[in-house]
Amino acid sequence: MKTFRYLLAISLLACACSAPKNDEWNLLWEENFDGPEIDLSTWTRVPQGPSDWNDMMSLREDLAFIENGQLVLLGKVGGENDPTPFVTGGVASKGKKSFREARIEIRAKFSSANGFWPALWIMPDCQLPTPEYAEVDLMEHLNFEDSVYQTVHSRYTLDGGNEPPKHGMGAIDKDGWNIYAAEIHQDSICLYTNDVKTLTYPRLDGVENQFPWSDYPFFFILSNQLGGSWVGPVDTPEQLPTELRIDWIKVYEKPYTELFNGKDLTGWKPVLKEGEEVNEPTFVADNGLLHITGQPFGYIRTEESYSNYTLHLEWRWAGEKGVDGGIFHFLNGEDKVWPQGVQLQMTPKDMGTLMGGIPIEGLEGPFYWKSRMVEESPEKPVGEWNTMDFVCRDGLIKAFLNGVFINQAQCAAREGYIGIQSEGGPMDFRNIRINTIK
């Protein structure tokens, strides 16, 4: 049965992943390394660590630098002041630059040596819920081989899940420039070398921890490494220094649907608490902002119902202090205060609780309450803009605040309206957009 399901998934994805980038992608961000030095607002030098890929890493500036519009990462024999026999350079964008569900392209070239292991890869830029794991290797090269490895890793693969196959091989010009690409879709990952597809890895329904990548923001790791259990020892140090050069990185995103046009409340329905006096409009569209006064209590919801989707919005507390607020998902039933749905609570210094009247797996009702999954709320101070992202698939809500994964809950509901709460004080919202998941 699993084999049939895998073959069916591959056949359904053949059209989506059979060709390189097309008009469905829009350029979102690019790094051309055209400054005199590494841009430390985007990149951090990788320190030494305990793993095979970073146990020779060094913060020495001569191992990671900009030259002729390229990022250069070197591997050398260690000096008398170095704690390791070899030293290597690497950079990462963790906590500084991350992306979700995108196409990534990296143009790079590297030298070859026994024990040399250059790599270009991505990992989630947040703490994942136990036991999930996610990694995509756009390029790994070993020694003098004339091809590269492109691989996906998850808890499912790490626990021995080998169907569908998790890696492909890409033919390269070993001494020249090559382009490595990955497409992160909601239903698949596609990997390319020089616009030749090397792997289509599909999401399998009902397989736990098998496909986490599209749910999380990811950051880049660009690493030069010498030695390791996979690549083998550095037994000919006269072949050093090794060199990994990156010419550019490009990130593309798919077009999204604007839920709020920034001019009026088209597509939205206000709902206010009965019997309360309304002295001025509670919901106002002005100059790209949705301003909510907070009085009287209520909410504004979409006129269209949604089931599987990713939702992005930006918000700030607009008054002198933070106030209660909330984002509703799966609103159903009568339009009243308060509605039947699941709400992400936006209480100052206590953001991230998922609550509501819809059953949540593992909790007892009739009113369900799931506290956030991180110790501290990563909210910004009053007046500063925050970002919220939600991934909703088959009733599972995953919530991210300023790129930090803060909570998730499996809900009984599968479809409903999206709403924004009015509860006591002013808040502003902007850039409210959605991508539906097929």
Give the class from helix and strand content and strand pairing. Answer: mainly beta
Q: Outline, from the CA principal axes?
A: elongated
Percent of residues in beta strands: 35-45%
What's the helix count? 2
CATH uppermost class of the largest domain: Mainly Beta
CATH topology title of the largest domain: Jelly Rolls
Poorly predicted spans: 1-15
> Whole-number average pLDDT?
91
Based on DSSP secondary structure assignment, what is the total number of beta strands? 31
The total domain count is: 2
Distance between the termini: 23 Å
Helix content: under 10%
Largest sheet, strands/sense/barrel: 9 strands, antiparallel
Radius of gyration over C-alpha positions, nearest whole angstrom: 24 Å
> In the CATH hierarchy, what is the architecture of the largest domain at level 2?
Sandwich
Q: Could you please describe the fold and organization of this structure?
A:
With 438 residues, this protein is mainly beta. The chain has 2 domains: 2-253, Jelly Rolls (Sandwich); 258-436, Exo-inulinase, domain 1 (Jelly Rolls), CATH 2.60.120. 5% of the residues lie in helices and 42% in strands. It has 2 helices and 31 strands. The protein has helices at 2-17, 155-158; strands at residues 26-31, 44-45, 64-67, 70-77, 86-88, 90-92, 102-110, 119-124, 134-140, 147-154, 167-171, 178-184, 188-193, 196-202, 218-223, 242-253, 257-258, 268-272, 283-286, 289-292, 298-302, 309-317, 326-332, 340-345, 354-356, 368-370, 386-393, 396-401, 404-410, 417-422, 427-436. Strands 1, 3, 4, 5, 7, 12, 13, 14 and 16 form a 9-stranded antiparallel beta sheet that branches. Residues 1-15 have low confidence and may be disordered.
